[in-house]
């Protein structure tokens, strides 16, 4: 039966502070929990009362989501449980007597850490509104600081036999393990507390005031949070996006390759353990002058293992090369799937998004994002996880083969190395993110300038564009310098930690060899193993940075993935059942921006096979009607029907298969003329393409080109004239053979003769088809079955050409102005021809004489 006979144990007194070269355990374990409980209970209670009485609950949107806050809670709970575990361990050892200070320490420590946990949770839920500070309260920071400092006091008792530093016996080893938990846990809590990850980074009153201003001005809350957040934010959300691409579904062969690669990865871990062991055996066999047969066998096994492992840093072995070879197909599958999925997603986005995009920015985001996925998967699966596994295996091996001191050295070095790497890398994240922003900006300026090459030449703006591009590069290089400088600082910090750990372990191992406790081979084993471990660890910082950089590079791509489709098919949407081609607009309302309506209660009907023309001033809503009919946007109110079917209830692909469009500004692909015409129907044969070109009255023109139908049209079709591009667009539409035709000012930018020729081609296309025409020149729609005059988003007049002229309204006024402008242009052309004719006549024709005669 376990009893508590005395407070300090046999032959000890609490009055003795210093015993045999160290603090008295009874004094130490009485003082520490008493101070901690006083801090947490007295000051914590006062702190809690203030928060309860004068504080207010924080709005959830102002409380940052942080996994580091979860780590704070987990560490606090762990420290509470270790206090309980210490008492349980004493009982489990079957000791007849438990000193009273052990029970006191366990109980007071549990109470202190429980109160600290309560304060930590309270500060996350409530806040003192008038408090201008940010971060944790002084009470919590002081509690963690005292807890960490008290554990450092144990080093004073380094030589005392009453403490665990000698690791003599199972009891001291267990006490050392409990101290290690307390030391790392309290230290981590203190340093995390300085950062206060679970609390807002700015005073709460300031956040509330900014929130109110943002709401009044219609801006987003808290501004751009992405600038200050960690790259590991939404980590699992990003991983969930990647997981479908990591496991090749539908391909058994690729799945087998993935499993083989993981198996080879495990084999590498085993090889890494046995290489130093066989190297040690060689040294010991040479030292002990073992037989040649045994020595040769050991050497052969060692060389074979090195062949499998590789020749050192940067030199891959047989297993690693085989794994890399097998992973190629899996990596290609992932890369292909991501790019194809993203490309399809971009095509599914609305016209509104595409009109507002910056092409250079999007292309850079796609390029960097897709390339970073390969790096991310490779580093995580084949670098980070194996390195962590090697560290764990090394700690276990050193503790079991040597002693706990070697395991502690490795653990402390690894802990400091990984912690400082993560902290410094997180700190320098903002520089990398800013560098990407400046890089996107520079490339966007370059792409925009080159796409608008003609405009630059028109205004002699070459030097201006070059200077803008140079300014963007200079800004990029400033961010690049900050990124590289912070990288150099991180590398120096890592080298210092690695060198310190190697020095401590080597000195300790050399000491044991000199004392005769270890063999020479054991020193070689330690040196070989630790250097072998530090080599991937030295790269761990690089791996972590590359993973973080990959996440940064992927952020823009993930934003593209999260762009929602504005126009989507209804869940029960079916195909459009085309019958006659009757188009109906019923009380349609639409606006691009809330509060500014473009269409207001528009209603009209286009009968099957008839032509309706839309005319009006710029901005009256003509092109918007065309876009709504093609369903680039959904209406805000009312309904659009084709043959009685609501367009919002049918599939977009089905709807658009029945509609052909000849746009105002025809943009061609940078391909040959044949393939540009064939785009109307991809499956069309060459003969069908030529028949469509004949119908569009462009066949003979194409034949006059040196390369005929193989003639490249250039970027956006710039090698063709405006009339030629329009005819190619008409040929496309003829090849598509749609039942409904939309003509969006298809001839507005052409000369009169070209316009007449194209009008003839359009008349052939539109024959017996339902047609909607947006016209600028009223002379082109005289024969329309119905003309709708739009003004301020409403139909002001409707009727045939003659009827509208007879009304003398808006249409008649527009017709009169265009006729006057046309007559003026004709008179100017006639006068110019007369002047030219006079200049061409000889002097004798006018009866005059040359000057000077």
From TrEMBL:
Describe the reaction catalysed, as an equation.
coproporphyrinogen III(in) + ATP + H2O = coproporphyrinogen III(out) + ADP + phosphate + H(+); coproporphyrin I(in) + ATP + H2O = coproporphyrin I(out) + ADP + phosphate + H(+); protoporphyrin IX(in) + ATP + H2O = protoporphyrin IX(out) + ADP + phosphate + H(+); pheophorbide a(in) + ATP + H2O = pheophorbide a(out) + ADP + phosphate + H(+)
Localization per Swiss-Prot or TrEMBL: Cell membrane; Early endosome membrane; Endoplasmic reticulum membrane; Endosome membrane
Instruction: Give the CC-aspect GO terms.
Output: early endosome membrane; endoplasmic reticulum membrane; extracellular region; Golgi membrane; lysosomal membrane; melanosome membrane; mitochondrial outer membrane; multivesicular body membrane
Q: Which InterPro entries match?
A: AAA+_ATPase, ABC1_TM_dom, ABC1_TM_sf, ABC_transporter-like_ATP-bd, ABC_transporter-like_CS, ABCB6_N, P-loop_NTPase, Type_1_exporter
Q: Where is the ABC transmembrane type-1 domain?
A: 259-549
Q: Where is this region: Disordered?
A: 818-853
Residue intervals of the ABC transporter domain = 583-817
Q: How does it sit in the membrane?
A: Multi-pass membrane protein
Which Pfam family name is an example for this entry? Answer: MTABC_N
Its Enzyme Commission number(s) read 7.6.2.5
Residue ranges annotated as compositionally biased, kind Low complexity, are 818-829
Give the matching CDD domains: ABC_6TM_ABCB6 (cd18581), ABCC_ATM1_transporter (cd03253)
Q: Which residue windows are transmembrane per the record?
A: 27-50, 71-92, 98-120, 141-164, 176-194, 252-275, 295-319, 376-399, 405-425, 496-514, 526-544
The residue stretches assigned to a coiled coil in this entry are none
Could you list this entry's UniProt keywords, alphabetically sorted.
ATP-binding, Cell membrane, Disulfide bond, Endoplasmic reticulum, Endosome, Golgi apparatus, Lysosome, Membrane, Mitochondrion, Mitochondrion outer membrane, Nucleotide-binding, Secreted, Translocase, Transmembrane, Transmembrane helix, Transport
Q: Where is the composition biased (Basic and acidic residues)?
A: 830-839
Domain of life, per UniProt, equals Eukaryota
Q: Name one GO molecular function term.
A: ATP binding
Could you describe the subunit structure of this protein?
Answer: Homodimer.
Family statement drawn from the similarity comment of this UniProt entry? Belongs to the ABC transporter superfamily. ABCB family. Heavy Metal importer (TC 3.A.1.210) subfamily.
Q: What is this protein called?
A: ATP-binding cassette sub-family B member 6
Taxonomic source organism: Clupea harengus
């Amino acid at each position: 039966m376990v009893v508590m006979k005395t407070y300090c144990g046999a032959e000890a007194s609490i009055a003795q502070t210093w015993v045999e070269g160290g603090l008295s355990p009874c004094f130490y374990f009485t003082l520490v929990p008493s101070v901690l409980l006083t801090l947490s209970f007295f000051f914590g209670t006062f702190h809690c009362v203030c928060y309860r009485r004068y504080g207010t609950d924080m709005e959830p949107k102002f409380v940052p989501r942080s996994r580091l806050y979860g780590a704070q809670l987990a560490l606090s709970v762990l420290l509470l449980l270790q206090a309980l575990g210490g008492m349980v361990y004493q009982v489990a050892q079957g000791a007849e007597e438990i000193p009273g200070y052990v029970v006191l320490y366990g109980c007071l420590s549990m109470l202190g850490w429980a109160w600290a946990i309560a304060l930590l949770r309270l500060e996350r839920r409530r806040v003192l509104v008038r408090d201008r500070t940010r971060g944790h309260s002084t009470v919590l920071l002081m509690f963690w600081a005292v807890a960490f400092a008290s554990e450092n006091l144990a080093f004073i008792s380094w030589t005392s036999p009453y403490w665990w530093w000698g690791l003599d016996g199972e009891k001291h080893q267990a006490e050392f393990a409990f101290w290690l938990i307390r030391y790392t846990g309290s230290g981590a809590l203190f340093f995390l507390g300085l950062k206060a990850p679970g609390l807002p980074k700015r005073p709460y009153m300031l956040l509330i005031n900014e929130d109110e201003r943002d709401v009044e001005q219609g801006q987003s809350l808290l501004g751009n949070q992405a600038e200050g957040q960690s790259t590991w934010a939404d980590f699992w959300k990003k991983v969930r996006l990647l997981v479908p691409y990591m496991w090749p579904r539908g391909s058994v062969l690729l799945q087998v390759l993935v499993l083989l690669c993981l198996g080879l990865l495990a084999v590498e871990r085993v090889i890494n353990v046995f290489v130093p062991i066989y190297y040690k055996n060689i040294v010991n066999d040479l030292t002990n002058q073992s037989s040649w047969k045994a020595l040769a066998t050991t050497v052969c096994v060692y060389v074979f293992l090195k062949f499998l492992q590789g020749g050192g840093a940067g030199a891959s072995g047989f297993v690693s090369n085989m794994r890399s070879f097998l992973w190629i197909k899996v990596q290609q599958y992932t890369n292909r799937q991501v790019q194809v999925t993203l490309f399809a997603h971009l095509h599914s986005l609305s016209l509104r998004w595409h009109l507002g995009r910056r092409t250079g920015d999007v292309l850079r985001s796609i390029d960097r994002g897709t390339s970073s996925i390969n790096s991310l998967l490779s580093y995580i699966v084949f670098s980070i996880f194996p390195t962590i596994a090697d560290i764990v295996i090394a700690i276990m091996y050193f503790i079991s083969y040597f002693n706990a001191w070697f395991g502690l050295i490795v653990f402390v070095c690894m802990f400091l190395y990984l912690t400082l790497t993560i902290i410094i890398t997180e700190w320098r994240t903002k520089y990398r993110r800013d560098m990407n922003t400046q890089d996107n900006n520079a490339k966007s300026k370059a792409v925009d300038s080159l796409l608008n090459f003609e405009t630059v030449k028109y205004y002699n703006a070459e030097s201006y564009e070059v200077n803008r591009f140079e300014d963007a590069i200079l800004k990029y290089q400033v961010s690049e310098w900050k990124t590289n400088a912070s990288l150099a600082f991180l590398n120096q910090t890592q080298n210092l930690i690695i060198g310190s750990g190697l020095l401590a372990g080597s000195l300790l191992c050399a000491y044991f060899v000199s004392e005769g406790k270890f063999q020479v081979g054991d020193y070689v084993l330690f040196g070989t193993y630790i250097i072998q471990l530090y080599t991937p660890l030295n790269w761990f910082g690089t791996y972590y940075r590359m993973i973080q950089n990959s996440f940064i590079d992927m952020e823009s791509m993930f934003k593209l993935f999260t762009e929602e489709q504005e126009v989507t098919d209804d869940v029960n949407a079916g195909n459009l059942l085309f019958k006659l081609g009757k188009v109906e607009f019923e009380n349609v309302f639409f606006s691009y921006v809330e509060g500014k309506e473009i269409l207001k209660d528009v209603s009209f009907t286009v009968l099957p096979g008839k032509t309706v023309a839309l005319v009006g001033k710029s901005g009256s809503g003509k092109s918007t009607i065309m876009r709504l009919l093609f369903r680039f946007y959904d209406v805000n109110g009312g309904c659009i029907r084709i043959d009685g079917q609501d367009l919002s209830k049918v599939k977009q692909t089905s709807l658009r298969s029945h509609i052909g469009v000849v746009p105002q500004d025809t943009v061609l692909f940078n391909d040959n003329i044949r393939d540009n015409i064939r785009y109307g129907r991809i499956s069309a044969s060459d003969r069908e393409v030529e028949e469509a070109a004949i119908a569009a009255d462009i066949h003979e023109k194409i034949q006059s080109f040196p390369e005929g139908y193989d003639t490249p049209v250039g970027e956006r079709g710039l090698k063709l004239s405006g009339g030629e591009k329009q005819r190619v667009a008409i040929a496309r539409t003829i090849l598509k053979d749609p039942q409904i035709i939309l003509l969006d000012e298809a001839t507005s930018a052409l000369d009169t003769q070209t316009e007449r020729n194209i009008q003839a081609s359009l008349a052939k296309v539109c024959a017996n088809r339902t047609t909607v025409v947006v016209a600028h020149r009223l002379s082109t729609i005289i024969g329309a079955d119905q003309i709708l005059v739009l003004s301020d988003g409403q139909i002001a007049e409707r009727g045939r050409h003659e009827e509208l002229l007879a009304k003398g309204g808006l249409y008649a006024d527009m017709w009169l102005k265009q006729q006057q402008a046309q007559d003026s242009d004709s008179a100017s052309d006639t006068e110019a021809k007369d002047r030219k004719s006079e200049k061409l006549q000889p002097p004798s024709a006018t009866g005059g004489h040359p000057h000077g005669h």
